[in-house]
Specification:
The complex is a heterodimer of chains A (244) and B (852). Chain A has 244 residues and is α/β, with parallel strands linked by helices. Chain A has helices at residues 44-51, 74-84, 100-110, 115-128, 144-156, 174-189, 201-204; strands spanning 2-12, 17-28, 33-37, 59-64, 67-68, 85-89, 162-166, 193-197, 209-214, 217-219. In chain A, the strands form two sheets. Chain A has a six-stranded mixed sheet with strand order 6-7-8-3-9-10, with helices on both faces. Chain A has a four-stranded antiparallel sheet with strand order 2-1-4-5, covered by helices on one side. In chain B, 51% of the residues lie in helices and 17% in strands. Chain B contains 27 helices and 24 strands. The two termini of chain B are 43 Å apart. The chains are: A alpha/beta (244), B alpha+beta (852).
Chain lengths: 244, 852
C-alpha cells in the first residue's frame, strides 16, 4: 500500500542543511499495524506528516496505492488524503469553536458527502464511540480521554484506509490510553492500516512491526527483534526518556 | 478512489471545458459552499463572541462609514439626477434670454410672455410649449383660505395646460387635458389637498386665493379644484403645490400674450420634436428675437443691441444654471464634492479599521486552518470559508448601517436643508453601487485570512511554528497610519472651518442687528406702501418698541435690484453706473445704527429728501469713481424712476450679507415702490409684551393676513448657513472618524496584549518595570501617530487654504491650529495605548504565566 524510497527531509537555510530524515526506505502493506519509535527529535512526526501528505519530502519517492504522491499537484494530493487518511494527534486538535457533532462532520463536508449520508455517518460514529450524550458539547467541556475519543472518531468517520496517529495516548492516563489502543487493534483487525508514533513500548506491542528512527536514520535491523502482537510486552515499564 | 482519479484525468484531457460544465461545476461548488457555510458560520459566530468587543468596534466603525456614504450617495444622486425623471427630458428645455442694452448685459432665466405663443403658432419643431408664471406681485406668499384654514403658499404657479404634456406631473384625480382649461381653476398637490380638505374629496371644492396682479390691490377669488397631482419630488427645480390656470391670469393681464416689454419673470418650457437639434431650433428663433428687439427698443425708448434666446436642457438646470431669477437656488457642485470627499474619508477609516481588525483577529485562526487541512480541507475550501465569513460580517455591518441610516438621514436633511428620502436607494445605480461596496469591503476584509492563512502548511501550524500577529504587520501599520492621518486631516479642517466662522462672525458688520423684529408685508403691499408712515407710528405706540423703519430688504436677504445711475440731470444709459439699491425711509440709518463717513443721513427736517437725496456707502462712492467727500453734492439720475437727486451722505460700509464678501456698492433711496419689510427695535426686557401689542396693531392694519415675524439675528444667522452646515458635517465626520480610529487602535492593542500576555509576564518576572513595558508596547504606535501627523498636516493645510480663498476676510491657519489638531489626536491615540499598557503592566505576572 505504501512504499517510500530514499525519502530524505531537510530544512535548509543560507548556510546549512539540517537533515531530519535520511534516505528512508519503507513499505507498509495493506492491513498492517506499524509503530514508529525513537527519541525526541528523531524525525518521527516528520515522517508521519510526509506519509499523511501534509508535508513533502525533500528527496525520494512516495507511492500510495501505486500512485506517485511526490508527483501530484497540491489539489490532487489533498483529494487523495481527504479520501483515504485519518489523523489522530497527541494534543487531539479538535476545533474549539465547533461542537463534537460539528467536529465529526467537518471531514465529511470536505469530502463532499451528501447531507443525509453525512448525518447517518455522524450518528453511527456517535453511537459507536458512545458519545451520543456529548454530541452538542464543545471540546473544552470534555475530558482529555473523551476529546481523544472524539478525535479518533473524527479520523475514522471518512472510513480511511490508513490511520496515522502521532502519540495518540501521550496526554492520556494509562486506562484511557489502553482504551484507545484496544480500539486501534479492533480497527486493524477490521482491515484498516495503522501507523502510530509512540514512546511507549506497551503501545508498540499492539502493532505488527516497529521501526526505529534515530537522528533521521531508520534502523531496520531491529524490525525482527520486536515480538509481534504480544500484549505482554506492553506491560513492561515505560523506559523512554524525554529530551535530547 | 480509482474512479475519482480516472475522472479527473478525463477532465484534464478534454482540454478547455465547455461553458456548461464550467457553470455546472460552479453550481456544485456553490452547493457545497452552502453546506460548509453552516459549519463555518458556527465558527464565525462563536469566535466573534469570544472577541465581542473587537467585533462590535469593527462592525460599528464600518456601519458608521457605510451609513455616512449612503447618505451622501443619496444626496449626490438627488443633486445629480435633478429633473431626469421626466420622460424624454433630453428633448425638454427651458428658454433663457439675454438682453444687452445701454444699461448693461442682462441674462435671465425667464423670457417674455408672448414667446410661448409665437413658438406654439409658428414653430413646428416644438412639440409642446408651456409657461410657468409665478403670481405677479406676491410670488412667494400667496394667501390661501379654506374655511378656518388660512396659510401662505409659496409654490404657486400660473401654468399653461400644456405643461402636463412636457413635464411629468402625474394626476391622481382629475384629467390633465381639461384641468386648467377654464379661468379660476386650480390643480393642487396631494399634500396640499390633505392640508386644506383633510380627507374630503377635493375635486369641485373651492379655495379662496388672494392674488396681486401688479395693480397695487389684492384680488381675492374663489378657485375650483379641478385636479390633484402627485407631490413634486425633491429632485426637480420646479416644485409646485398649486397650479392656477393661465386663463385666470390672462383675464387680468390681457396683454400677456402680446406685451414683450413686461418684466415679471415668465418661465418658458419647450419640448422639441424628436431629432430636432436644439441649435437648429435656436436658429429658428433668431428672426423673432430680432423682431422683439426692435419692438422693445421702440417701447423702451432706448437702444437694445442684442437679444438672444438659448435652450437650457432641463436636467442641467439645477447644477448648470445660475442666472438671475432662478426658481430655486442652484445646486453647488462644491458641496457635492466636499460632502462626497468627507464621506469617502469616513468610509476609508471605517473600512481600514474593519480590514485591520479582521486581519488581527484572524491570526487566532491559524490552528484551525492547520486542523482543517489535516481533515482534508483544500486551500480553496479555506479561501472560500474566510471570504464567506467576511462577507457575512460585512452584511452585519450593512444591516447596522441601514439602522443608522434613518437617524443620519434625518440629521442630514435638517442640517443641509434637503428633503432626501430612502426612495433613491431603490434606484438600480445606487443598488449597484451598494453591492459593489459590499463586495469590495467583504472581500478586502477577508483577503488577508483567505490568502495568507489558507497558505499555512498544516505541519508548521500543528508544530506551533506560526506565531499569531507575525504576518501582515507592515500592512496593518499602514492601515493605522492611514486612519490617523485621515482623522488628523479632518480635525484640522473642522477647526479651520469653525475658526473661520468665528472670525467672520466676530468682525464688525457695520450695522446693529440686536433686538430687531422683522415683519414682512406679503399681502396688501399697495396699502402698506401708501400708508407706511402712519402704520409705523401705530407700531411705535406699542410698548417696548423704540424705533421703526421700512425698507426693500433687511440684512440676511439676498437681493439683486439695482439702479443704473447717470451723472447729471438727464438720463442716457450710456456711461451709466450700476449700484445695488436699498429703498428706505428716513429712519433706516439710525435704526440700524449705520455710521456716516461723510455728509448726513436722511432728515425729515431738510424738507424734501424723498425727492432730492441719495445716500451711498463707501463702496458705492468708489464705484462711482469718487471719494466720500467728493461724492457729496454730486447729482445722479436713476434709470429706474428717472429722478435726479443729490448725494447728501456717505455711510461707512455695512455687510448685510455677512463677511463672506467685500461690502457691495450700495445706494439708499427713499422710494415707496419697492418697500416690503418693516423693522422694529425691541426692548429686550419687554419682548412678550411688545409682541402681543405688535400683533394687535398688525390685526388692525392687515386684517385676515396671518401674523408672521422673525428676529433679525436669527434670520441673519442663515447668511453663513452653507459654511455652518459644512462645519457641522465636518464636525460629525471628524468626531466619528476619531472615535473609529481610537476604538480600532484600542481594540487592536487590547488584542495584541492578550496575545502577548505571557511574554509580558515573563519580562516582568525577569525584572522589567511597568514603565519599561509600557514603553515597549507604545513605542511603535507613537511613531505611527507622529508619521500620520506629518502626512496629514500639509494636506489639511492645502485643503483649508483652498477653501479659505472663497472668503474676502479670512484667517491664516497657522501653527497653533495644526499643532492643536495633531496633539488632540495624538492624545486620544495615546490614551488608547496607555490605558492598555498600564493595565497589562499592572497585571500580576504570575497570573499571566499560570493561565497558559
Ligand atoms: N521548520 C523546521 N526547521 C528546522 N528544523 C525543523 C523544523 N521542523 C522540525 N525541525 C527539526 O526536525 C527534527 C524532527 O522533528 P520531529 O517533530 O519530527 O521530531 P519527533 O521525532 O516527532 O520528536 P518528538 O518525539 O519530540 O515529537 C527536530 O530536530 C526539529 O528540530
Ligand atoms: Mg513528534
Amino acid at each position: 500500500m505504501i512504499r517510500l524510497m530514499g525519502i530524505t527531509k531537510y530544512y535548509a537555510n543560507a548556510f546549512i542543511k539540517t537533515f531530519v530524515l535520511r534516505n528512508i526506505d519503507l513499505s507498509v502493506k495493506e492491513g498492517e499495524f506499524l509503530t514508529i519509535m525513537g527519541p525526541s527529535g528523531a524525525g518521527k512526526s516528520t515522517l508521519l506528516y510526509i506519509l499523511g501528505m501534509l508535508d513533502e519530502a525533500s528527496e525520494g519517492e512516495y507511492f500510495f496505492c501505486g500512485q506517485a504522491v511526490h508527483g501530484l499537484s497540491e489539489k490532487k494530493r489533498t483529494q487523495l488524503h481527504q479520501q483515504n487518511i485519518g489523523f489522530v494527534f497527541q494534543s487531539y486538535h479538535l476545533i474549539d469553536e465547533l461542537t463534537v457533532c460539528e467536529n465529526l462532520e467537518t471531514p465529511l463536508l470536505y469530502k463532499k458527502v451528501k447531507p443525509d449520508e453525512r448525518k447517518s455517518l455522524v450518528a453511527d460514529a456517535l453511537d459507536r464511540f458512545r458519545i451520543v450524550a456529548k454530541k452538542d458539547l464543545f471540546p473544552s467541556q470534555l475530558s482529555g480521554g473523551q476529546q481523544q475519543l472524539v478525535a479518533v472518531a473524527r479520523a475514522l468517520i471518512i472510513q480511511p484506509k490508513l490511520i496515522l496517529a502521532d502519540e495518540p495516548t501521550g496526554n492520556l492516563n494509562s486506562q484511557q490510553g489502553e482504551e484507545i489502543m484496544e480500539l486501534f487493534r479492533k480497527l486493524n483487525a477490521e482491515g484498516t492500516t495503522i501507523i502510530q508514533v509512540t514512546h511507549s513500548e506497551k503501545n508498540a506491542a499492539y502493532s505488527d512491526r516497529v521501526i526505529h528512527l534515530l537522528d533521521g536514520w531508520m534502523n531496520n535491523k531491529e524490525e525482527a527483534a520486536i515480538p509481534v502482537k504480544n500484549p505482554e510486552a506492553g506491560k513492561r515499564k515505560k523506559n523512554h526518556s524525554e529530551g535530547t | 478512489m480509482m474512479n475519482r482519479k480516472t475522472a479527473d484525468h478525463a477532465n484534464d484531457r478534454t482540454g478547455p471545458r465547455s461553458l456548461g460544465s464550467r457553470l455546472a461545476s460552479l453550481g456544485r461548488r456553490g452547493y457545497w459552499q452552502m453546506l460548509m457555510l453552516k459549519n463555518t458560520l458556527g465558527i464565525t459566530l462563536r469566535s466573534l463572541m469570544k472577541n465581542k468587543g473587537i467585533f462590535l468596534i469593527k462592525v460599528f466603525g464600518l456601519a458608521a462609514g457605510i451609513a455616512c456614504s449612503m447618505v451622501v450617495i443619496l444626496y449626490v444622486v438627488n443633486e445629480l439626477t435633478y429633473d431626469t425623471y421626466h420622460p424624454d427630458h433630453e428633448r425638454i428645455f427651458r428658454i433663457a434670454c439675454r438682453r444687452v442694452h445701454d444699461g448693461g448685459d442682462f441674462p435671465n432665466a425667464s423670457t417674455q410672455g408672448p414667446l410661448a405663443a409665437v413658438i406654439r403658432e409658428e414653430l413646428s419643431q416644438a412639440e409642446n410649449v408651456a409657461r410657468m408664471i409665478p403670481p405677479l406681485e406676491n410670488a412667494k406668499h400667496v394667501l390661501v383660505v379654506q374655511g378656518e384654514r388660512r396659510f401662505f403658499e409659496k409654490r404657486v404657479w400660473f401654468a399653461d395646460p400644456d405643461i402636463f404634456n412636457i413635464l411629468s406631473i402625474p394626476f391622481v384625480e382629475g384629467n390633465a387635458g381639461a384641468a386648467l382649461a377654464r379661468p379660476k381653476t386650480v390643480v393642487i398637490s396631494e399634500s396640499t389637498a390633505r392640508k386644506y380638505f383633510a380627507g374630503l374629496p377635493p375635486l369641485g371644492r373651492r379655495l379662496t386665493i388672494e392674488l396681486d396682479y401688479d395693480t397695487g390691490a389684492a384680488v381675492i377669488e374663489d378657485f375650483e379644484v379641478t385636479g390633484v397631482v402627485r407631490d413634486a419630488p425633491a429632485n426637480t427645480h420646479l416644485k409646485y403645490d398649486m397650479l392656477l390656470s393661465m386663463a385666470t391670469l390672462l383675464a387680468y393681464v390681457p396683454t400677456l400674450n402680446q406685451d414683450w416689454g413686461e418684466y415679471h419673470p415668465k418661465y418658458t418650457y419647450v419640448k422639441l420634436r424628436r431629432h430636432v437639434a436644439p441649435s437648429a431650433f435656436t436658429e429658428q428663433l433668431r428672426p423673432y428675437s430680432e423682431r422683439i428687439r426692435q419692438a422693445f427698443a421702440r417701447r423702451a425708448g432706448s437702444a437694445m443691441y442684442k437679444l438672444d434666446f438659448s435652450l437650457q436642457p432641463l436636467a442641467s438646470l439645477h447644477m448648470g444654471s445660475n442666472l438671475p431669477d432662478e426658481i430655486e437656488p442652484p445646486g453647488n457642485i462644491l458641496y457635492v464634492y466636499i460632502y462626497s470627499f468627507a464621506a469617502l474619508l469616513i468610509l476609508l477609516i471605517g473600512a481600514s479599521n474593519f480590514v485591520n481588525l479582521s486581519a488581527t483577529l484572524s491570526t487566532t485562526r491559524s490552528r484551525e486552518v492547520g486542523i482543517r487541512k489535516t481533515l482534508g480541507g483544500s486551500r480553496g475550501d479555506l479561501v472560500w470559508q474566510f471570504l464567506g465569513e467576511s462577507l457575512v460580517i460585512t452584511l452585519f455591518a450593512f444591516l447596522a448601517a441601514f439602522a443608522f441610516l434613518s437617524l443620519l438621514l434625518r440629521f442630514f436633511n435638517r442640517m443641509a436643508g434637503t428633503a432626501i428620502d430612502f426612495q433613491a436607494l431603490g434606484q438600480p445605480l445606487v443598488l449597484a453601487m451598494l453591492l459593489a461596496l459590499f463586495l469590495l469591503l467583504g472581500i478586502s476584509a477577508g483577503l488577508y485570512p483567505a490568502l495568507v492563512l489558507s497558505r499555512f502548511q498544516p505541519v508548521s501550524v500543528l508544530k506551533n511554528q506560526v506565531f499569531p500577529g507575525m504576518h501582515g504587520h507592515a500592512a496593518q501599520r499602514l492601515l493605522i497610519l492611514g486612519q490617523f492621518a485621515i482623522a488628523i486631516f479632518l480635525v484640522v479642517c473642522t477647526l479651520v472651518v469653525f475658526r473661520q466662522l468665528t472670525f467672520i462672525k466676530g468682525k464688525a458688520l457695520g450695522f446693529d442687528r440686536e433686538q430687531k423684529l422683522i415683519l414682512e408685508i406679503k399681502s396688501n403691499q399697495g396699502y402698506f406702501r401708501r400708508n407706511y408712515e402712519a402704520i409705523k407710528s401705530d407700531f411705535l405706540k406699542a410698548p417696548g418698541i423704540s424705533a421703526a423703519t421700512v425698507s426693500s430688504t433687511v440684512p440676511g436677504e439676498t437681493f439683486s435690484g439695482g439702479y443704473s445711475l447717470q451723472k447729471g440731470s438727464s438720463f442716457s444709459i450710456l456711461n451709466s453706473k450700476r449700484l445695488k439699491i436699498i429703498t428706505v425711509d428716513h429712519d433706516f440709518i439710525p435704526t440700524y445704527g449705520i455710521r456716516m463717513t461723510a455728509g448726513r443721513a436722511f432728515q425729515r427736517a431738510s424738507g424734501n429728501d424723498e425727492q432730492s437725496a441719495y445716500i451711498v456707502n463707501e463702496a458705492g462712492a468708489r464705484e462711482l469713481g469718487l471719494t466720500p467727500e467728493r461724492a457729496l453734492g454730486t447729482q445722479w439720475t436713476a434709470h429706474y424712476h428717472r429722478k435726479t437727486k443729490t448725494i447728501v451722505g456717505v455711510t461707512a460700509d455695512f455687510h448685510f450679507l455677512g463677511m463672506k464678501n467685500e461690502a457691495e456698492p450700495l445706494i439708499l433711496d427713499i422710494e415707496k415702490s419697492l418697500l416690503r419689510v418693516m423693522t422694529l427695535s425691541l426692548d429686550a426686557r419687554r419682548v412678550s409684551q411688545a409682541l402681543a401689542a405688535v400683533k394687535e396693531t398688525w390685526r388692525r392694519h392687515f386684517p385676515g393676513v396671518p401674523f408672521e415675524y422673525s428676529f433679525l439675528d436669527e434670520a441673519f444667522g442663515r447668511v453663513y448657513q452653507y459654511e455652518e452646515r459644512m462645519g457641522r458635517l465636518l464636525g460629525l465626520v471628524s468626531g466619528l472618524g476619531i472615535a473609529i480610529a481610537f476604538l480600532g487602535l484600542y481594540g487592536m492593542i487590547a488584542f495584541t496584549m492578550r496575545m502577548r500576555r505571557k511574554e509580558i509576564g515573563i519580562r516582568r518576572v525577569l525584572g522589567a518595570t511597568s514603565a519599561a513595558i509600557a514603553l515597549l508596547l507604545t513605542r511603535q504606535f507613537v511613531t505611527l501617530v507622529f508619521l500620520a501627523g506629518f502626512l496629514a498636516v500639509p494636506m489639511a493645510w492645502m485643503a483649508t487654504t483652498l477653501w479659505l480663498q472663497g472668503f474676502a476676510y479670512r484667517i491664516q491657519p497657522g501653527f497653533p491650529v495644526f499643532a492643536f489638531a495633531f496633539l488632540a489626536t495624538f492624545a486620544i491615540a495615546m490614551a488608547a495605548v496607555l490605558l492598555q499598557a498600564l493595565r497589562s503592566a499592572r497585571d500580576n505576572p504570575v497570573d499571566a504565566l499560570r493561565s497558559e
